[in-house]
Task: inverse folding
């Protein structure tokens, strides 16, 4: 157990809809990253939040957005869902400090299916 | 820019045989390197990591990896494969600019034959 929990575990949405995925970071972790993992591929970096601000973004369109809350929980929002958005969405938390960090601890993921 | 290449999308070994999963990285600065394992329909679990210091890194479940700067490699090995090792393995490099993101390779699926 990594202490990172994601909800829901599975989700089915219709093309064009909007979805919100949630992540509860490990206690004390100040950074959360979101990844998209399509079937048979490695995780692709979506974005990262550090102290409630976006701190880096991958090659994903603006309809992918996020939030990090003061208690270090986080949300990933995807608008105007497309069929290609079907994937496992992984949340990872870590501690980032000026002189040290921890590796990323991953949740179990949310399997999103867009039909 | 950092990147990771895993050689071989599938590797098959017999139970008890040596496991070797290959990973090469590119990085303009000394990298932090990781190996993660993923079982079906689960998240990623850290096997081992290299940050600084000793270049031979030991991880969980009998796995180890050696950082070779001259070869820009970080191959994962295990002397004797077990059926429970069958999973997807990801090599990753940590990027320390433009956000502290971890970049993953495409993965190598390990099959273990009885």
Result:
């Amino acid at each position: 157990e990594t202490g990172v929990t994601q909800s829901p575990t599975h989700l089915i949405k219709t093309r064009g809809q909007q979805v919100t995925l949630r992540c509860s970071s490990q206690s004390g972790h100040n950074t959360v990253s979101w990844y998209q993992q399509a079937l048979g591929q490695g995780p692709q970096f979506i974005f990262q939040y550090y102290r409630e601000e976006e701190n880096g973004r991958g090659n994903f369109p603006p309809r992918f957005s996020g939030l990090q809350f003061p208690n270090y929980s986080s949300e990933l929002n995807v608008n105007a869902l497309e069929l290609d958005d079907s994937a496992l969405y992984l949340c990872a938390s870590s501690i980032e400090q000026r002189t040290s960090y921890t590796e990323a601890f991953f949740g179990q993921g949310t399997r999103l299916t867009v039909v | 820019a950092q990147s990771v290449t895993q050689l071989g999308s599938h590797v098959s070994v017999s139970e008890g045989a040596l496991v070797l999963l290959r990973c090469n990285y590119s990085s303009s600065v000394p990298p932090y390197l990781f190996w993660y394992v993923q079982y079906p329909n689960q998240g990623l679990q850290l096997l081992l990591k290299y940050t600084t210091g000793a270049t031979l890194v030991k991880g969980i479940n009998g796995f180890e990896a050696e950082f070779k700067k001259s070869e820009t490699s970080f191959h994962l090995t295990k002397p004797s494969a077990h059926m429970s090792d069958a999973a997807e393995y990801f090599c990753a490099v940590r990027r320390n600019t433009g956000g502290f993101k971890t970049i993953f390779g495409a993965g190598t699926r390990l099959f273990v034959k009885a």
User: Anything to note?
Assistant: DSSP finds no helices and eleven strands in chain B. The longest strand of chain B covers residues 19-26. Chain B touches chain A through 21 residues (CB under 8 Å). Chain B has a mean pLDDT of 90.
